[in-house]
Amino acid sequence: xxxxxxxxxxxxxxxxxxxxxxxxxxxEVVDFGAHTLSPDDDYPDFVVPLARAVVARKVDRGxxxxxxxxxxxxxxxxxxxxxxxxxxxxFSAKQGVEDDHMNILCMGGRxxxxxxxxxxxxxxxxxxxxxxxxxxxxxxxxxxLDTGKT
Length: 150
Known about the structure:
The protein is about 45% helix and about 15% strand. The chain has about 150 residues and is an alpha/beta fold.
């Protein structure tokens, strides 16, 4: 799978660890930054290009990390057709894709340890959207809210 990943300083070390694990697992990874640790960087500068790449299908799915994961989630969801969620548990990592067609997994570099983060990433990437009628219907209603997004 072609996976995009983005972070600011708050998730930099977790991103670096996940990069190695993703590549070792055979995934093609596009790193949207940050490429250096700088406490003055801003997560939108990295998360927005990731989200746009997901929408343009330049990557299959995205991982967005900031200190808490909240800012990355809020930011990613401002981009039309993105369904990003802050995830801390295995069930939601799977169900978010299967039922809600989540395309960006958000995590906090200061709130999730590397072992849990890797479990969440593996679960997220292995899950598939169910295509169930009720989920398609709900996603249609959600998509109708995208008016005016970039």
